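REVIEWER CHECKLIST
Item 1: Sequence provided? yes
Item 2: Single chain? yes
Item 3: Sequence as submitted:
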Amino acid sequence: MNKFQLEQTKAFKLANDLKQGGRARVGSADAQKTDRREQRKLDQAKGLVPFACKLDEKLVTQLKSRAEAHDGGMTEVLAELLVKAGLER
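Item 4: Structure as written out by the authors:
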């Protein structure tokens, strides 16, 4: 492996780490996070099902700002809004 290939491999690893949310630092709150497989299993145990839809950009911005202020995140915010709209859990 020549120097260019080595640097290219490092760049690919760095880009992948950034896509996945960066590397966990020792002693930080990021170390508490679960990986995707574990999170998927936890969600399935709770009875949660992935649901994708397309929304207006302004609405998404409002939802994101509400989710940042909410402890449960986006999932809980959407669940609360749907319940308020008359849909039951």
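Item 5: Key structural point noted by reviewer: Residues 3 and 42 are 43 Å apart (CA to CA).
Item 6: Recommendation: ____
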